[in-house]
Bifunctional protein FolD 4 (Cardamine amara subsp. amara), 362 residues
Amino acid sequence: MASMMFTDCSSSTTSRLIHFNRRNGTFLLRRRVDQLRLQTTASGRGCNLSIRSSSSLTPAISADTKSEATAKVIDGKAVAKKIRDEITIEVSRMKESIGVVPGLAVILVGDRKDSATYVRNKKKACESVGIKSFEVRLSEDSSEEEVLKSVSGFNDDPCVHGILVQLPLPSHMDEQNILNAVSIEKDVDGFHPLNIGRLAMRGREPLFVPCTPKGCIELLHRYNIEIKGKRAVVIGRSNIVGMPAALLLQREDATVSIIHSRTKNPEEITREADIIISAVGVPNMVRGSWIKPGAVIIDVGINPVEDASAPRGYRLVGDICYEEACKVASAITPVPGGVGPMTIAMLLSNTLTSAKRIHNFQ
Ligand SMILES: NC(=O)C1=CN([C@@H]2O[C@H](COP(=O)(O)OP(=O)(O)OC[C@H]3O[C@@H](n4cnc5c(N)ncnc54)[C@H](OP(=O)(O)O)[C@@H]3O)[C@@H](O)[C@H]2O)C=CC1
Ligand SMILES: Nc1nc(=O)c2c([nH]1)NC[C@@H]1CN(c3ccc(C(=O)N[C@@H](CCC(=O)O)C(=O)O)cc3)C=[N+]21
């Protein structure tokens, strides 16, 4: 599909749409009058919620019947900052003790604007914690062999402890072939089939867990949200987010259901969930009426919606209709400022872990 249309979930009858060109990662703005009408959702007053907070980052979330129903915001940006601070200390301890600086290599192919932005952000994040970053940029029309050559160079480079091939790759390249070429010891994205296979198997440990799902679970842990024994629903089954998120939740002893594009009546399934992780790419798809009162919502979706008042002409929204969901859920991640910053923090964490493992540094 060359382009996708994104809708806005506001109570206004005019919804603004933005076309995202999947091929080159640019946004085309368009406006349309939409007949979209908000469904009435579970009323905020019907929602059972109260929040006990022991520290600003580790509140315990529990239920009572009196509170005004406004979900606790799970602040991924703040947690990610805390994690970066922890990593900074470890990186300098490692440098002082054994003289090794962790290194992350990023391979960017093509000129998608969104990919370039992500790669820039990763580079900045590396600098902020003292991780050395390496970058190879290849043109859109470069060959698969050239990418494989870069991967192989980084596999052999002792200064590089993590390798990330920015996705998506141009369509003429075989993504599987390229991801398989990344040394499993440096696969900080956790996309190598050996790492994913181990993640899926009982009693096996992957060397790396994919960053976005790992960030989702880390948020649940840091907010003391129990996973064990809970009903979890993952919306989306992609190799990079939905599928590994479901595997991770299962490893944490949740009972997991997966919703995808062929699922019938998804809202009936989500309404049963104590925890929802959504990674679809459809703005505001999950309405308040899809959510069980008191559920915890992790919104992975990052979707651009036209907003003339925003500096870039658009703003980012998640898969969850936030304004409805926060009246029903007990806790929710915002977009932006939720899972996104955690993805980058987990990438830094995986890179540090890799360097420690390679140099046998505890
Ligand atoms: N915050 C972060 O760090 C990250 C955010 N993202 C964002 O997360 C979202 C998902 O990304 P990604 O997993 O790569 O996307 P993909 O397009 O690879 O996968 C989307 C998944 O959603 C399912 N899906 C699509 N439409 C529907 C629908 N109407 N109902 C139910 N399921 C549906 C698809 O089902 P099927 O399998 O049947 O096609 C598929 O499994 C995007 O918005 C992306 O930008 C992605 C990576 C990191
Ligand atoms: N090999 C590979 N690994 C990835 O992990 C990978 C990838 N390819 N391709 C693209 C997706 C997407 N992704 C994001 C990371 C951070 C934010 C992020 O930090 N978002 C900010 C907002 C950023 C903004 O304002 O533009 C936030 O949500 O607050 C978003 C998306 C990683 N991905």
Summary: Residues 14 and 33 are 5 Å apart (CA to CA). Confidence is low (pLDDT under 50) at residues 1-8, 11-17, 27-60, 62-67. The chain is about 35% helix and 20% strand.
